[in-house]
Amino acid sequence: MTTAARHHGVTTKEFTKGARAISDIASSIIGIVATADDADDKQFPLNTPVFHTSAYRALASAGEKGTLAKSLDAICDQADAQIIVVRVPHADDAEEQRNHIIGSATGGVYTGIKALRRARAVTGYTPKILGVPMLDSQSVIAELAGVAQETRAFIYASAGNNPDISAVANYRKNFGQREIMLIDNQFIDDKGEDDATIARILGARAKLDTQIGWHKTISNTVINGVSQLKLPRSFDLLDDKCDANTLNNADVTTLIRENGFRTWGNRTCSEDPMMAFESTVRSAQIIQETIASSFLWAMDKPMHPSLLEDIIMGINAKLSEYVYKGMLLGARVFVDANKNQATNVQAGQFTFGYEFTAVPPLENLVLEQYVSDTFFVNLTNKVVSFANSLKATTI
């Protein structure tokens, strides 16, 4: 006799319904590749991405040689930040050093930038602000661009530090990736050497993300801990022929001295004009990952209307939050019936669309000044009124 599967009692089943809150991803984690032969091997093992909750605390184990300690110190001058470091060997030969930085992937062993690409798998964190301070040659930037595209991160890199502005503009033509911003000029120390310029930019970007948000470009940000520039680039708010504006017109950000030392420039190396502004690129990157990564809970659940409605409400709530905070100008969620035919649904696929408008920076303030005779009448009227108010003098 087969045993019956009956329950003589009460069975309670629990279901969840409603929009889930979408959490922001960490956008201010810095990722660098650096050298330091005397660094603590446990804290900074070679060719291994290591996550540090504090750049300031990591500095104590960074040694003194190479670029690591100087980079961490420059970052800390702006603000303490979470950071992922890949330490590579130092080499006196430029080509050998470049090869160490770019790295390789052989037999499942990853080095240099290729190791940085695996940061999430190794550390559980993904750096969104990338750079190779003091060692970012053209080939290094080109390699790092692939990591930025894959991980939706953004690169700040040297524009070559050539005194000739036309040469800097020509160097810019080597890149067409929206994930790159080139920085002209250098902060220098008392010896005339690079004072970890790019590291300072990385720290400033992390600080902006924390204090204001990813919708603010790095332009017009005061950089801490510096006292001089290598190249005397001219700057004047009213002169569109000055060096700074000429560089900006070549899509290169520069460094200026104007009530402190500042970054000046909003534009990326994007070949697409829609992605010209740094803020637009980072908005697209952060929003894409924030929304996509928040729906793990929904995957493989039965595709009932209630599930799809919960997803719509979740996306709409997050975009509305960004608009309310001033991080977007506007946004909406929609469903295109043509992309959700019976064959799509039968295959377990449902498509949602959403669009938004990023907040552009005020790059060009136009003030129209008119010199006219309009208000002469006011002068005359006031004098006449005053004269008429005087009492007559009599004997």
From TrEMBL:
Signal peptide: none
Top-rank lineage group of the source organism: Bacteria
Domain Tail sheath protein C-terminal: 271-371
Pfam families: Phage_sheath_1, Phage_sheath_1C
Domain Tail sheath protein subtilisin-like per the UniProt entry, residue ranges: 108-269
InterPro entries attached to this UniProt entry: Phage_sheath_subtilisin, Tail_sheath_C, Tail_sheath_structural
Family in the record: Belongs to the myoviridae tail sheath protein family.
The protein, known as: Phage tail sheath protein
Organism: Kingella oralis ATCC 51147
